């Protein structure tokens, strides 16, 4: 694995449910880190620099948590139960699961 780039290693770790030898998911290097919110504010998804995400729904804080990998403008998710999903960033807007998320400013 030493010859792999961080995004590939992170993708393998995410898809297999394994972690790196340091015991954590490799840091992500992309411009999308931060809080993303639906227009009505009901769903709030925080993309963390360590390759993890934390999603709140309504009053349910941390309703879903898991790993993610960004490749270009595409994001792949794998929650801690094994469910997978994906999305696309277009003009600083996240399109994911039929929903639209805006960066929280």
Detailed description of the structure:
- It is a single chain.
- With 105 residues, the protein is mostly beta strands.
- The protein has one domain: Uncharacterised protein family Atu4866 (Lipocalin).
- It has an 8-stranded antiparallel β-barrel.
- The radius of gyration is 13 Å and the shape is globular.
- The termini are far apart.
- The N terminus is likely disordered.
- It comes from Agrobacterium tomkonis CFBP 6623.
- Pfam families: Atu4866.
- This is Agrobacterium tumefaciens protein Atu4866.
Short structural description:
With 105 residues, this protein is mainly beta.
List keywords for this structure.
8-stranded antiparallel beta barrel, 1 helix, 105 residues, mainly beta, globular, disordered N terminus, 10% helix, Lipocalin
Give the count of structural domains: 1
Helix fraction bin: 10-25%
Strand line-up of the largest beta sheet: 1-2-3-4-5-6-7-8
CATH fold naming:
Lipocalin
Terminus-to-terminus distance: 37 Å
**What is the subunit arrangement here?**
single chain
Instruction: Round the Cα radius of gyration to an integer and report it.
Output: 13 Å
The mean pLDDT is 84
Beta content comes to: over 45%
Would you report the number of β strands?
8
Which consecutive residue ranges, at least 5 long each, have pLDDT under 50? 1-6
CATH superfamily: Uncharacterised protein family Atu4866
User: Helix and strand string, N-terminal first?
Assistant: HEEEEEEEE
Mind describing the biggest β-sheet?
Answer: 8 strands, antiparallel, barrel
- Coarse structural class: mainly beta
SS element count, helices: 1
- The top level CATH class name: Mainly Beta
CATH architecture assignment? Beta Barrel
């Amino acid at each position: 694995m030493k010859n792999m780039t961080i995004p590939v290693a992170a993708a393998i770790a995410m898809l297999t449910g394994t972690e790196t030898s340091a015991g954590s998911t490799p840091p992500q290097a992309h411009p999308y880190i931060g809080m993303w919110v639906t227009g009505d504010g009901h769903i709030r998804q925080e993309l963390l620099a360590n390759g993890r995400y934390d999603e709140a729904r309504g009053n349910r804080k941390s309703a879903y948590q898991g790993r993610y990998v960004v490749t270009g403008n595409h994001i792949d998710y794998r929650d801690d139960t094994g469910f997978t999903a994906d999305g696309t960033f277009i003009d600083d807007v996240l399109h994911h699961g039929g929903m639209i998320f805006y960066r929280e400013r």
